[in-house]
Design a protein that fits this description.
2 copies of one chain form a homodimer. In chain A, strands 1-2 form a two-stranded antiparallel sheet. Chain A has one domain: Farnesyl Diphosphate Synthase (Orthogonal Bundle). With 352 residues, chain A is an all-alpha fold. In chain A, β1 and β2 form a beta hairpin. At the A-B interface, α5, α7 and α8 of A face α5, α7 and α8 of B.
């Protein structure tokens, strides 16, 4: 019998992601079609289904980890993958609501290599269509009108509130000189962990899983989210712009207090202290926006020297391990467990 | 036995509004307290509980028609008024989510005689706290974890989607030269009718009322909302700034295609045509923002001459009548019916 690791290695992750996308996208498109004009068009642009001129496009819809998890979680409860589809769609709608609003709040002009909605259609449409996707996410679940759909909606609402709390923390941290590693992890747990937790359990809830099972799957998803975010924080500084679709040193340009930064600042020692002085000076520097590549590279080198890069890579592995351990507490078919494990591996080794 | 009209006249509306406010406000405050800082403070400012400096304030919390309706609707289902409280709170949270976002989208700087949230705390907080209140509204209902709470949340979600559709229509109408009376009524039904419909039925749903009863109460609330909005449109042009807290000719300054305007434009005749020419010229006039009182007064006089003011006043009465007729299809205690009727009367004769 193959070990759990070998079983995970044998999973075709691409096919698993493709299945989630194939099952969820038509239902997602149908839900978005319900929006009154021009919101349906704005949403279709956001999802990459049309370009800014309104012509059909085959945009980068993202990695589709969440839909894959949602349909897989239905199988963890012994249900058909299709049972998880409304959950997958609801989670995608809520995720994209938060992207629309966050991009506007953060002033981000690019997402997935394209201009963000507020840049193309204006701030009012970004707010409005975000609101509409949020409402639609609840609607898609509640129209199932079962007790389990009510439970699923409640969990989605809890995750959505955490998402909003995380964005509030993210904004407030930007104005602070120091953020602790614990605060950063709490923020990332809210911004990324909570919704991946919901994605990992919502199909199971719709499939009738009890709360203990749903909680264990949420735990897997939460820590998977923290692993994902640790990798994202590494890519935000050292990622290849060609792959990430972001600028070089993206998070440094945005003065983000991401994990490598806060870990480096908390580490102590000469590089840590030098980094602290530099970032404090940067915060007051009116010329910051005109910094050269070399100046960002110098800061990235200090973060690495202080151990922030290594700590974050280790943290991704720690969170990955906790996620896998949570799976062991749930009774599920070995093939389903192997697929959950393979998705977790994929998240930690991804390059974009 | 007194007639239905006499019974309504005998109701102490002030006490009815006060009861809704007294039952709902503590629960609303407790819900808002759950928000992570600084969102709890921003929300408390919005609700008028504190001033911009953070000191306790006794702000104008509005007329509180919605909470009064929600607790009354529980009694229509034979339940205690308290049963309607989570519904009242959820509806207030969703209503205030829409105010926060609409004020930002519309660029409105004042509400209830105070600076709006985006003016005081910035656009990001207005977006974020709006999102949080929306999520909280669902949470307050879903944590009841009953089938009826799920039904109530579904109705609230439908109303919220209509609210968002209405705001989308409102924004798109501002860019159009002509809007039909039907389009205007549809927009107002979405923006105002849908949530008052939900407020008028949500307590009954929580109290176990069947869908036929809930639908009839929604119909009452929907048409009450249209009556309310017709009165609001009259106040938006001819209201006393001292009472409304808005500028003179407020809706004309904002070029709103409100009912008196669209009815006047649709009426035909010399005054209607002259008004159409003037408004078309205004739309292209870069000096519009510096118009004198006399110029707005001239437009208001043309709207009145073309019959827009009278048509809107008649429309308020028509909608009021449909609302009362919807009550007749529901079995409920005569005292409760009289109270619904009295609230409807109050909405149509209000001065602010």
């Amino acid at each position: 019998m193959p070990s759990a690791e070998e079983a995970a290695d044998a999973v075709d992750v691409t096919a698993l992601l493709e299945r989630g996308r194939t099952l969820a996208t038509p239902v997602l498109k149908k839900a978005v079609d319900r929006l009154a004009p021009p919101m349906n068009t704005v949403a279709a642009y956001h999802f990459g289904w049309i370009d800014a001129a309104g012509n059909p496009a085959d945009g980068d819809g993202g990695k589709a980890v969440r839909p894959a998890l949602a349909v897989l979680s239905a199988q963890a409860a012994g249900a058909a993958p299709e049972v998880g589809v409304p959950g997958a769609v609801a989670v995608e709608l809520v995720h994209n609501f938060s992207l629309l609003h966050d991009d506007l709040m953060d002033g981000d002009e690019q997402r997935r290599h394209r201009d963000t909605v507020w840049k193309v259609h204006g701030p009012a449409q970004a707010i409005l269509v975000g609101d509409a996707l949020f409402a639609l996410g609840n609607e898609v679940l509640l129209e199932i009108a079962s007790v389990d759909a009510g439970r699923a909606t409640r969990r989605l609402t809890t995750a959505t509130r955490a998402l909003i709390d995380g964005q509030a923390q993210d904004i407030s941290y930007e104005h602070r000189e120091r953020v602790s590693v614990e605060e950063c992890l709490e923020m990332e747990g809210n911004k990324t962990g909570a919704l991946l937790a919901c994605a990992s359990s919502i199909g199971a809830v719709l499939g009738g899983a009890d709360d203990v099972t749903a909680d264990a799957l949420e735990k897997y998803g939460y820590h998977l989210g923290l692993a994902f975010q640790a990798v994202d924080d590494l890519l935000g500084i050292w990622g290849d712009p060609e792959s990430t679709g972001k600028q070089t040193w993206s998070d440094l340009r945005q003065r983000k207090k991401s994990l490598p930064v806060v870990a480096a600042l908390a580490a102590g020692g000469p590089a840590s202290e030098r980094l602290g002085e530099l970032l404090a000076a940067d915060a007051k520097n009116n010329d910051f926006d005109n910094f050269s590549e070399a100046e960002f590279a110098a800061r990235a080198a200090l973060i690495e020297e202080a151990g922030g890069r290594q700590w974050t890579a280790d943290e991704a592995r720690r969170q990955h391990k906790i996620a896998l351990e949570a799976l062991d507490t749930v009774q599920m078919p070995a093939t389903v467990r192997a697929q959950f494990a393979a998705l977790a591996d994929f998240v930690v080794v991804r390059k974009r």
